[in-house]
Structure formats: structure tokens, C-alpha cells
Amino acid sequence: xxxxxxxxxxxxxxxxxxxxxxxxxxxxxxxxxxxxxxxxxxxxxxxxxxxxxxxxxxxxxxxxxxxxxxxxxxxxxxxxxxxxxxxxxxxxxxxxxxxxxxxxxxxxxxxxxxxxxxxxxxxxxxxxxxxxxxxxxxxxxxxxxxxxxxxxxxxxxxxxxxxxxxxxxxxxxxxxxxxxxxxxxxxxxxxxxxxxxxxxxxxxxxxxxxxxxxxxxxxxxxxxxxxxxxxxxxxxxxxxxxxxxxxxxxxxxxxxxxxxxxxxxxxxxxxxxxxxxxxxxxxxxxxxxxxxxxxxxxxxxxxxxxxxxxxxxxxxxxxxxxxxxxxxxxxxxxxxxxxxxxxxxxxxxxxxxxxxxxxxxxxxxxxxxxxxxxxxxxxxxxxxxxxxxxxxxxxxxxxxxxxxxxxxxxx
Length: 411
Ligand code: BGC
What we know:
Elements: H1 23-31, E1 49-57, E2 63-70, E3 76-80, E4 86-92, E5 98-100, H2 108-117, E6 124-126, E7 132-133, E8 137-140, E9 143-146, E10 155-156, E11 169-172, E12 179-188, E13 199-208, E14 212-221, E15 225-226, E16 230-232, E17 234-235, E18 249-252, E19 254-258, E20 271-272, E21 284-285, H3 295-300, E22 304-309, E23 318-324, E24 330-336, E25 340-344, E26 350-354, E27 360-362, E28 367-372, E29 387-388, E30 394-404
Antiparallel strand pairs: 1-2, 2-3, 3-4, 4-5, 6-16, 7-10, 8-9, 11-12, 12-13, 13-14, 14-30, 15-29, 17-28, 18-21, 18-23, 19-20, 19-22, 22-25, 23-24, 24-30, 25-28, 26-27
Beta-D-glucopyranose (BGC) binds next to strand 25.
């Protein structure tokens, strides 16, 4: 039985001109009539590419490849066979200037050592259970399951060796139209990190010519288990290492959220966002209420919460969140079939690590938009179920649509 299905892709959006000097751009600007400068560019199908090259060797001796997906617009996405880690998403700003809008490390040992040491998870595929399981424990079909506690007293993002630290098998997806993509597969043995069932996981990364990156997650099991998969990219639409995202604006399609206790575990309550700093039903500057003394903001040291995306039915992809950087004009809209989105303003980054740009990363230098099931769902029967049984298929898709807003510079 299929428990949920991939939803149809959102309506294709216009692609964006790469150069502010294009005739179309200049005539639009001189008209001065449009706030949003959405232009049709001519995609170059011959630019579409899939390639791979060696990225380094893990301390275990395993070799890691880095893959590049490039679309006909010149947008590209890079990821590793290690953890499925997205190391770069290169997108143009409103003037056609391309920047990498995700945080990461220049070298593999950053991902293997620093990221693991500080529980950072830059760009990684997260499993088996995204976010926290209280005390690492839950009851499934009457049996108490103990998973590896790696964030005392809880299990965070799958335990000590989660999917973010596994070598995934990668192959090019064929037969895609106006897109380029890769399939990543992993088999997680029965009992891994304490989770029951042999799990077969397939994740597709597809970059299309409308500057959309879609991530489809599928899984099956041979014993009842629980599962919560996401990607942990840290976005900064000004470019990684460009400073804080406090001036980005954020809108979240959610009327409610799941408040957490001091161990960052949901209390079980479904709370309205109204009259709280978590109300992003209309766009707000992220920094506007970041220093609010609302108890939830103090517990999270900023935003680190699961919003309940409106309209969940298990299979329809709907808008979850939109982020806009007024300075570069870059925009990002996230849509998903998943029930929730963990929005995290990189509250733990403290200047200890620097990215490929050579700039150190500090608190609020990025925003993670982790579409997923609610944290600790196995301990909250009222939350949408994360149980996966033999014969069922886990199937969720999240789409990151990149764009620009605002007029290009004339020069
Ligand atoms: C969690 C944070 C955690 C971060 C990095 C997020 O998904 O919600 O609490 O600090 O991941 O591990």
C-alpha cells in the first residue's frame, strides 16, 4: 500500500534573465512600472549537465565523489556521495550575479569532523529520524525501542551515525524533461542506531530549467519502524559567508506550531502562531522579533521550531515558506507534501568554523528550512504518524524554487 504520493510539481514559473544589461531588462526598468522583475530567458539545453569528480577520502579510507547538476539557465547544485550533502546551490541575483546560497565547508574533513563534532549537519540528508526523539525512546506496537542518544538526553537527526554520515550510491536519472537529476540510494540495516527494520531509501535530486530543486524521498521497510527524512541545507540568499540573514523576509504558510520544552521536545500542544513572534502568516523581517522575550524564543535561542504547514493531506505539495533577500533580490519558495517545517536560524553557529568563502559563520548567518514530520512524533499519537510498515511506501517531495525580485541595476 502506498501511504502517500509525490504531488504534481507546482506550475512552471518564468525563468529569470541572467544579465541586468539585457534589452528586456532595460526596457522594463526604464518603464519603472514593475516591482518584480521576472523575465523570460532563453534556456540553453546544451548547458544542462551532470558530472562527478573526486572530493576527498574519509578517515575510514572511503572515497567521496562530488556531483554537479547544471540546468539550462546556468544554475547549478553540487552534492556529495557522503551524506547526500548539498555543498553548493549557485543561483543568480537580480543583476545576474551568481552566488552559492548554502553554507558549507571547503573540504571533506569539515563535513566529516567539524560538522559531526558540533552537530551542524550542513546540507545533509537526515535520517532515520529528523529532529529529536525524547530520551531516544519510543514505543512501537507495544515494544520499547531505544535509539542512540547523541544529543543528551535525546536522539537528534538519527543518532551517532545517521544518514548524513553514510556513503550513498549515486546514479544519473535518465529520461527527465527540461531537468537534470540524480538518484541516491542507501540500505540501512535492521537495528541501525537502534531503529528496527531493514530500510531501503531512495532520494532524487532534480534540478529543472525553471530553477527548481526538487527532493523526493522514498523508503520501504521489512519490519515496522518509524521514519522522518529531510535535507538540512542552511540558506543565505546573500551568499554563504555574507553575514546575517536578519534582513531577509520570511513568510510561513502556517496558522499553528508545536511548542517545545527546555529539552527542545514538543509539549504535545498545537499552538496558534497569532500574537507570538512565530506569526509569519504575512512577511516579516527575520530579525524583527528575534530578540523577543517570548519563552519559545528563549528556549530556542532564536527560531528553532516546527510550524504546521496548512493543508496537509499526505500527498499534495503546497507552499510552506517564502524567503526574500531585499539586498540581492534572490527569493526562495519552499513547497512540500510533508506536514511540518522546522525553521532554524542557525542559533548554534558561533564563529568556530568558516565556509568556502573564508568567512566565519555566526549565529543567524543562515536559515534552515527543514520540511519534515513533527519532532518526536512517535511519542505523540495525535501527531501525523511516522510509522512505516512492510508493504507501505514512504513518499514525500519538497521543492525549492529560486527566483529574483526587484529591478536590476541599469549598469
Ligand atoms: C534542530 C536544531 C539543531 C540543528 C543542528 C535543527 O534541525 O532543530 O535544534 O541545533 O538542527 O543540529
